[in-house]
Amino acid sequence: MAANGPKTPSTGVRLVRVDPERAGQRIDNFLLGQLKGAPRSLIYRILRTGEVRIDGRRAKPDTRLAGGEEVRIPPVRLEAPTDHGEPPSGPMERVAESIVYEDRALLALNKPSGIATHGGSGISFGVIELLRNLRPDQPLELVHRLDRDTSGLLVIAKKRSALTELQRLIREGLLEKRYLTLLVGALPQKKFSVNQPLLKSTLQGGERMVRVDPQGKASLSHFRLIEGAGAHSYTEVKIDTGRTHQIRVHSAFAGHPVAGDDKYGDKAANRVLKQAGLKRLFLHAASLKFALKDGEQEYVLNAPLPDELKNVLERLDKD
């Protein structure tokens, strides 16, 4: 039997005092920062078994820190970190060119489809790693995530205060997200909503799957038909919650999956759409609206639909 890769020495129990600037951060994300290189599966395992304690109390993965607590981190043994070297110049240039807005607090980019938000699961460099290589002196942190195949607006915080405020806005539903998508088939009505709980699971190979399930988390999506596109529907979606794969699962539940979705979609329809030039998931994060500094500084960020998706709509209209 082949030996496992080298391991780093196991550390003893650590007691870590939470910096006040970490207020609002989830404990699972805090642990990822403390245990560099630890896979999420390990983080969730030590949380699930009760080995992580906050001021002596058992922590759940979604427990949020207030700042000032004492966190007990159990001894863990990690794979020795892999040196991935410098990222290739091509993706770094694509990310640099995709920045659509920047100020002292944050930056926003129009993430290309095909680039992951962050590394992991066989991916060495995602957007955040590429940006950190481009700007090694800046403390950049992801505010939220987009699926690898989804294009559009992705916000990165440049200050801890901006990160915590944006995360609060997301929790309270005060960050307005608008997506553009092509749904398979003709919608029976111009507007409809899907209010169905979503449950996330991880398959043995690490692939994430989401399904409608009464045991899941509350999830609400609002769909509005913009125009017909051949036999399909060009649609705007606004989401009140930001669950993993939410739009993809809710649209499939409604009987009109996202075009080009190879996980939850219509395989026969996808084959036909491929002939119209659709080579990716037709889902784009088009706009974000929110306000920082207790509502004093308003942001309205926009990212135009990529040319490859515009071209698909034009071809469908001609058919």
TrEMBL record:
Domain RNA-binding S4, chain residue ranges per copy: 25-86
SMART domains named among the record's database cross-references: S4 (SM00363)
Highest taxon listed in the record's lineage: Bacteria
A Gene Ontology molecular function term of the record: RNA binding
Active site: D147
Keyword terms of this UniProt record: Isomerase, RNA-binding, rRNA processing
Catalytic reactions on record: a uridine in RNA = a pseudouridine in RNA; uridine(955/2504/2580) in 23S rRNA = pseudouridine(955/2504/2580) in 23S rRNA
GO biological process, one term: enzyme-directed rRNA pseudouridine synthesis
Keyword RNA-binding: yes
Keyword flag rRNA processing: yes
Entries under Pfam families matching the protein: PseudoU_synth_2 (PF00849), S4 (PF01479)
Sequence similarity: Belongs to the pseudouridine synthase RluA family.
Protein name as catalogued: Pseudouridine synthase
Organism: Chiayiivirga flava
